[in-house]
Specification:
296 residues; alpha/beta; Rossmann fold; six-stranded mixed β-sheet; four-stranded antiparallel β-sheet
Length: 296
């Protein structure tokens, strides 16, 4: 039986034709990598869905927070802002897995943590959330280095590895020369930087800062905030609880404004606190545009 002859495409040899087809990429080499990175960045790390927390004071029910919805995506810098009694502290406890809600669901990295036991919550906290407190909460009879090592001990990290990594973190916050000092031998700003180093000990995905500049003077507070912003630029998700609107608007990408246990409004850099300046500039350049809108 005679084999059927395969004719090459006109103007090309069979080799040329095959080569042309095989080397044509379906998309640019780095495109799939970029798409993957964008998807990872947009991933929700913490979500509150219709979350409420009620406390019983005798016969009275105090609604600390009531029906709060909040979404934090990977790599964002979020501020939870509000006056005293607005529900900020309760929100922080719930976001950081320090408490469970009366109603609603809380997810951390896609897992519903609302019904977990305290021991399971403690394990998740240690791995995924790093805390920076207003009062620093350093252990007074431990050295600076030992304070930073402490969270790693609870995760079962070897002593030598804890010691080495704690020094790396202290170098990161420019306090390696204070490693053997005790908390009462360093300044407030230095204590807060130790607290930040300790928060990074288990390489958590989220840094939760509760009034991080509350006990600091303005200049020292700015240094601490710039360091948190640097961590955010390096990929850490930062959630800051504050009562200072200037601080929230200067550093956060998204601000949740709480009042009486509810989210009063949400402002973003693209359509919130920064857009007002942009709008004023646009109106100055195009005054007719504003008139046209009014006439509608």
């Amino acid at each position: 039986m005679k084999e059927k002859e395969v004719k090459p495409l006109r103007g090309r040899s069979p080799t040329q034709s095959k080569s042309k087809i095989s080397i044509r990429p379906s998309r640019k080499p780095n495109e799939s990598h970029r798409i993957k990175k964008v998807k990872e960045k947009r991933k929700e790390v913490i979500g509150l869905r219709n979350v409420s927390k009620y406390y019983h004071m005798g016969e009275t029910i105090v609604k600390a927070i009531d029906g709060v919805n909040l979404s934090v995506k990977k790599g964002e810098f979020i501020a939870v802002m509000g006056p005293s009694g607005s529900g900020k502290s309760t929100s922080m406890n719930l976001i950081g897995s320090l408490d469970v809600p009366t109603k609603g669901t809380i997810s951390l990295d896609g897992e519903n943590i609302s019904l977990l036991s305290e021991s399971d919550l403690a394990q998740i906290r240690g791995q995924k959330v790093g805390f920076v407190f207003q009062q620093f909460n350093l252990i007074p009879n431990l050295t600076v280095q030992e304070n930073v090592m402490l969270p790693m001990m609870f995760q079962g990290t070897d002593y030598e590895e804890r010691e080495e990594y704690a020094m790396e973190l202290l170098e990161k916050v420019d306090l390696a020369d204070r490693a053997n000092h005790y908390p009462n031998q360093i300044s407030g700003g230095q204590m807060q930087r130790v607290a930040i180093a300790r928060a990074l000990a288990n390489d958590p995905e989220v840094i939760l800062a509760d009034e991080p500049t509350g006990n600091l003077d303005t200049k020292t507070g700015e240094k601490v905030m710039e360091f948190l912003k640097k961590l955010n630029r390096e990929g850490k998700t930062v959630i800051m609880v504050t009562h200072e609107p200037e601080l929230a608007e200067k550093y956060a990408n998204i601000v949740y404004w709480l009042r009486d246990g509810k989210v009063e409004k949400i402002t973003r850099r693209t359509n919130g606190f920064k857009i007002e300046k942009q709008e004023r500039r646009l109106i100055k350049k195009n005054p007719e545009k504003k008139k046209g809108k009014k006439g509608k």
